[in-house]
Design goal:
about 800 residues; eight-stranded mixed beta sheet; 27 helices
Length: about 800
């Protein structure tokens, strides 16, 4: 038979296949939905709004208090090669040395941003004495610096992936310019190449638009002038170097020619080329003839080798006409003899004649084969002698050729040195003439396409973009903080979370009374005023649903159902009552255990308030305070202590003598009594089981308030003796790990867990049941007014 819960059917005793009973195991896992994320945003809506507004206000203040900056741009066209008036090459090798175009333009961009070029412009424009440039240094606000940092990320990544070549050293140094002036200039300068073109934009930013225009144009002119001077200086230095080398090359040419003539006289070489051609040609002819003789000898040698092995199929025999004729006659005679032999006896005369004729033919064939063998052997010996003679002549000719080559190698080396030195001398002489002309030319590969014009509007601060960026940053920051705080909040806050994490039905959600402040639509009603007074009393006593110690003879404020029967909290306990009554198909459980994972989750207040809701049905309910370590039920009910469960279990008192009637009709209490030294042994004793069996027959329902599961084992021992267990969870307080481990321990103890009660839930923070709270609070407010009338 299965127990019935408000959510799903499950076996009365869960099996290990249904639940993982290991501590901390996750029973069910469901994916989060978009609604869950929306609830997180709604829960932390105030934080998101505050973060959004604060960021927007800071952005607005930063934007409207920042000094406006004006920017002027000059556009340059940079060609790799300067225009050629004459077909000349300068010292930088334009057209003579081809290197990577990417590296070239990156080098030029770095030169445009170099400190030396900046110093030239500062001096040329007398920026040291410019009040706008020197006086007030404009610093962007915090958001402006952040935005500039974000904009610099692509450049940083690109520079890391492809380091730029080091810029060329400029003549002008920056030792006599103040570092702050140089830093201010480079901070306002912006070099931006136009993608997929040879254009580059030189931009300068300053508070004065006229200054921006003047500096942008001056920087472009300084770059052009620097390139021309760099090229002229390189030509002058190259010309001086080549003139020194020309004298050295002239001496080397004279020495090389003298050495060549002396070697020619010593070796008697007149016409080295003609002799070399005749000797080499003869060597080639002998090599060809030797190859042919060797091939002929190899072929004859193969035939001789075949004859030695008894082979008869020689090419020369196949081409011999007599051999062919004899072979045909032999085949004919053999055929006729075979024909006659099949018809006549061997002594038949015609058959005897055919055999004699066959023998004669075979003798002639043998004679011809012997002649062929002798001819092949003679030819092989002649071919071998011819090959040896050619090989000897070949070696003799090779020696002659090598001796001539030895002389020609040294001659060629000397001749090549003469030619090389003469070519170098001529090339340097020609280069000196070209560079002499190139030094006097003032051509540049850089031209100004658009000069800087007067800017009408500032480029920063961009108020619209800054405000939009601030709003977006504030919104994303607020949402990020919301999810970060939600991530840090490792507690169970909603019944959906409870069911998802524990795999147990949520029987009820008990709101925290603090969550109702300001949320009651009838805040000024007498009911709300009375609730606020009660809240102040809770604060004054310092309990807040945690089970404190009221004054003697005074009921605790935990008994919400008795004090405020029409409140939302009371309705939550009635929902819990309905869940318990529906937890079984045949009859509801009569012996219930209320426990929690750790202390101060509200299990005592839940036990008492649930018991009171049952008494309102007209049934007799007994509450047993089984917490023999920290009893609190008698304090919550405003009753004095005395003998109780401990005395009954030790046999000092009878159970009927220690049960007390409370101020609530049909509600009875069996307090804990004197705190014993061995609570666990008493709770798990046979006597405890007998007491519960006896009390089951005397009362309609018996509710047991036990210690928490995690610190002690009392609740696990009691769980085996009752009809069902209700887990109380401190909403937004108890960590998930603790609740899961407590649930796993109860499952391992074979407890019949009916479900969970999410206690002390802040309805306004959770967001899930705020609309229900609003509905019920309005409903009971109207009901209270009607009753007052």
């Amino acid at each position: 038979m299965k127990d019935l819960t408000p959510y799903f059917l499950r076996p009365a005793s869960p099996t290990p296949e249904e639940f993982d009973v290991r501590p901390g195991a996750i029973v069910h896992s469901e994916p989060l939905h978009l609604w869950d994320y929306w609830q997180v945003v709604r829960k932390h809506g105030l934080l998101i709004v505050v973060c959004f507004l604060l960021t927007v206000v800071i952005t607005a203040v930063n934007t409207f208090t920042t000094t406006p900056i004006y920017m002027a741009e000059t556009t340059l066209l940079i060609e790799r090669k300067a225009p050629r008036v004459l077909d000349l090459r300068d010292a930088q090798g334009d057209g003579g040395f081809d290197y990577d175009e990417y590296d070239y333009y990156r080098t030029q961009f770095e030169i445009l941003k170099s400190r030396g070029l900046a110093v030239q412009v500062i001096r040329a424009q007398s920026l040291e004495s410019n009040s706008t440039f020197v006086g007030k240094k404009v610093e962007p606000g915090p958001l402006g610096r952040l935005w500039a940092e974000i904009q610099s990320w692509p450049k940083t990544i690109l520079s890391v992936m492809s380091p730029a070549p080091p810029p060329q050293q400029l003549e002008t140094t920056s030792t006599d310019v103040k570092p702050e002036l140089l830093g201010a200039y480079l901070g306002g300068l912006d070099i931006r190449p136009v993608p997929r073109t040879r254009l580059v934009k030189i931009a300068f930013r300053s508070p004065d638009p006229s200054l921006s225009v003047a500096v942008a144009n001056a920087h472009a002119r300084a770059y052009i002038r620097h390139g021309a001077e760099l090229r002229s200086e390189a030509n002058r230095e190259g010309l001086s170097f080549l003139e020194e080398k020309l004298v050295e090359l002239k001496e080397r040419v004279e020495k090389a020619e003298a050495a060549l003539n002396q070697y020619r006289r010593d070796k008697g070489i007149i016409s080295l080329d003609d002799k070399e051609n005749i000797i080499v040609n003869r060597l080639v002819d002998l090599n060809t003839r030797l190859t042919e003789a060797e091939a002929e000898r190899i072929g004859l040698e193969a035939q001789v080798h075949t004859l030695k092995k008894g082979g008869k199929s020689l090419p020369m025999l196949a081409d011999n006409g007599l051999v062919k004729s004899l072979t045909e006659q032999l085949a004919k005679v053999e055929a006729e003899g075979a024909h006659l032999a099949s018809q006549f006896k061997p002594d038949y005369p015609p058959l005897q004649q055919l055999k004699a004729q066959e023998a004669e033919i075979r003798k002639q064939l043998r004679q011809e084969e012997q002649k062929a063998e002798k001819g092949i052997t003679s030819a092989f010996q002649a071919a071998l002698r011819n090959e040896n003679e050619l090989r000897a002549k070949m070696e003799e000719q090779r020696s002659t050729t090598l001796s001539l080559k030895d002389a020609s190698v040294e001659y060629a080396v000397l001749s090549r040195e003469v030619d090389t030195n003469r070519q170098l001398y001529d090339s340097v002489l020609q280069r000196i003439k070209e560079m002499g002309v190139a030094t006097e030319m003032r051509t540049s590969n850089v031209s100004i396409i658009d000069q800087a014009s007067f800017p009408r509007l500032p480029i920063s601060p961009n108020k619209r973009s800054a405000l939009m960026f601030g709003a977006l940053l504030g919104l994303l920051g607020g949402v990020g903080l919301a999810f970060f705080f939600e991530y840090l909040d490792n507690t169970i806050k909603t019944p959906d979370q409870s069911e998802r994490e524990l795999g147990l039905p949520s029987l009820s959600v008990v709101p925290h009374f603090l969550s109702m402040r300001g949320g009651d639509p009838a805040e000024g009603s007498p009911l709300a005023q009375k609730a606020r007074q009660q809240l102040l009393a809770w604060k004054r006593w310092g309990h807040l649903q945690l089970g404190g110690e009221p004054a003697p003879g005074t009921a605790s404020t935990q008994i919400v159902v008795a004090h405020h029967p029409l409140s939302v909290v009371s309705e939550a306990y009635r929902t819990l009552r309905a869940g318990i009554l529906l937890s079984r198909a045949e009859e509801p459980p009569r012996l219930l255990l209320f426990t929690s994972g750790v202390h101060a989750e509200g299990k005592t207040s839940t036990t008492l308030n649930t018991a009171i809701t049952f008494t309102q049905m007209g049934v007799r309910v007994l509450v047993i305070d089984a917490d023999l370590r920290r009893p609190s039920c008698h304090k919550a009910l405003g009753m004095k202590g005395g003998p109780g469960l401990a005395e009954v279990l030790t046999g000092q008192r009878k159970v009927e003598k220690v049960i007390k009637r409370t101020s609530v009709d049909n509600l009875y209490l069996l307090s804990s009594g004197t705190i014993p030294p061995n609570p666990a042994e008493l709770i798990g004793s046979v006597k405890m089981h007998e007491v519960l069996t006896a009390l089951r027959t005397q009362f309609d329902y018996v509710f047991i308030d036990s210690p928490p599961v995690m610190p002690v084992s009392d609740a696990l021992l009691l769980a085996k003796m009752v009809d069902g267990v209700v887990m109380v969870i401190g909403g937004q307080e108890t960590p998930k790990k603790v609740v899961k481990e407590a649930r796993a321990r109860l499952t391992y103890a074979r407890a019949k867990i009916l479900g969970t009660v999410l206690n002390k839930v802040d309805l306004q923070r959770s967001g899930y049941y705020y609309h229900n709270y609003y509905y019920y609070s309005s409903h009971y407010h109207r009901s209270g007014e009607a009753e007052g009338e």
